[in-house]
Specification:
375 residues, alpha/beta, Aspartate Aminotransferase, domain 2, three-stranded antiparallel sheet, 14 helices, binds pyridoxal-5'-phosphate
Length: 375
């Protein structure tokens, strides 16, 4: 979705000319500067660049001490990586229905809490925020960590607050489909210095190019989820462009929503009506949604492959890389309750279409396309 161009090309040239592509802790270098710029932009104390959104989620879970035996509440409508990261951390994802806003249903979330629930992962899907007030209240009452999966929603706000800055940790993805991109990549944000230290450890083997410490604790074994200076350089440019990208997205959202509303189409409700940077329509019937999805630029959410839990093959089949790595066996919850049916989510996804914002088109063209789509 984000545009790449000459400035990114120049930034890459600068890194190549430096002769050193690997990240270090030197404050003059691209990754470190990107992290402080991202933290400043988001108004949080700490940001860490990682190799993907999935890697960021794994680091966040490990940093929060979540592992075997633990349950993490995950919405049934999200990219498979959200639930997959929980399993990679050794815990189990417990599925929660989404409500008509397409984000995790706080009431079903409350109903799925058990003595083993340690965290909730609200996912701000398709640039639409979750009901964070309710989620944070429930999480506080039950002592749950909140790991916000804001992979699809960098720059989106919920009642004025940026997605990714309201929970214990926020996670972004910078893969090619996101609001800003370095092809692949991600970042984690937190205000908690201890969580930050543990995420830093988790993303860099625990030995590090980064001179990290864990206070008085010895470092633990992490993976290598570092990004390179090349990605750091691109991301610095992309972050500078982000406000403009978001303005364009907002304008396109308004244009398309206005045309669809005028034609009497049923727009999907949002937790903060001013927030969404996407357009979705929830119809009365599956047939209406199927018919609308045939229009150019429209797609039905149910047809969106691994964003629907019924398509998460390895998870449904309980298949990890090795049979003895089996988070389901380490958990108290019965395996068939982990991927419990979420019929309400499936029904909503069958009846809901999202619309392409036509970001490349100039505004007058976008207006014409919006009217064509609506009629
Ligand atoms: C909601 C959500 N969570 C997690 C991820 C994982 O991000 P990545 O592809 O960077 O690993 C994605 C990526 O598409 C996503 O959309």
């Amino acid at each position: 979705m984000a545009k790449l161009g000459f400035i990114e090309w120049l930034a890459l040239g600068r890194v190549i000319a430096s002769g050193s592509l690997i990240r270090t802790d030197d404050g003059a270098r691209e990754c470190v500067r990107f992290e402080s710029e991202l933290a400043r932009w988001a108004g949080v104390d700490h940001a860490l660049a990682v190799s993907s959104g999935t890697a960021g989620l794994v680091c966040a879970l490990q940093a929060c001490g979540i592992g075997p035996g633990d349950e993490v509440l995950v919405p049934a409508y999200t990219w498979m990586g959200s639930a997959g990261a929980v399993l990679l951390a050794g815990a189990v994802p417990v599925l929660v229905e989404v409500d008509e806003t397409l984000t995790i249903d706080p009431e079903d979330m409350r109903a799925k809490i058990t003595p083993h629930t340690r965290a909730v992962m609200p996912v701000h899907m398709i640039n639409r925020p979750c009901d964070m007030d309710s989620i944070l209240t429930i999480a506080r009452t039950h002592g749950l960590r909140v790991i916000e999966d804001a992979c699809q929603a960098i720059g989106v706000r919920y009642r004025g607050q940026l997605c990714g800055t309201m929970g214990d940790v926020g996670v972004f993805s910078f893969n090619s489909y996101k609001n800003m991109t370095s092809g692949e990549g991600g970042a984690v944000l937190t205000r908690d210095p201890q969580i930050m230290e543990r995420m830093t450890n988790a993303h860099d083997l625990g030995i590090s190019y980064r001179g990290q410490t864990l206070g008085n604790s010895p470092v633990f074994l992490g993976a290598n989820y570092r990004i390179s200076e090349l990605q750091g350089a691109i991301l610095r440019v992309q972050l500078r462009k982000l406000p403009k990208t978001l303005r364009r997205m907002r304008r396109r959202t308004e244009i398309i929503a206005k045309a669809l509303r005028a034609a009497g189409h049923p727009l999907t409700p949002a937790n903060d009506p001013a927030a969404p940077l996407s357009v979705a329509l929830t119809f009365e019937t599956e047939e209406e949604a199927k018919a609308f999805s045939q229009r150019p630029g429209a797609r039905r959410l149910f047809d969106n492959s691994k964003h629907v839990y019924t398509e998460w093959r390895p998870i449904l089949d309980r298949r990890m890389a090795h049979p003895r790595v089996d988070p389901w066996a380490w958990a108290e919850i019965a395996p068939d309750r982990v991927i419990d049916d979420c019929p309400r989510t499936l029904d909503l996804l069958r009846r809901t279409c999202a619309v392409n914002l036509k970001m490349r088109a100039p505004e007058p063209v976008a207006k014409v396309l919006a009217r064509q789509l609506a009629t």
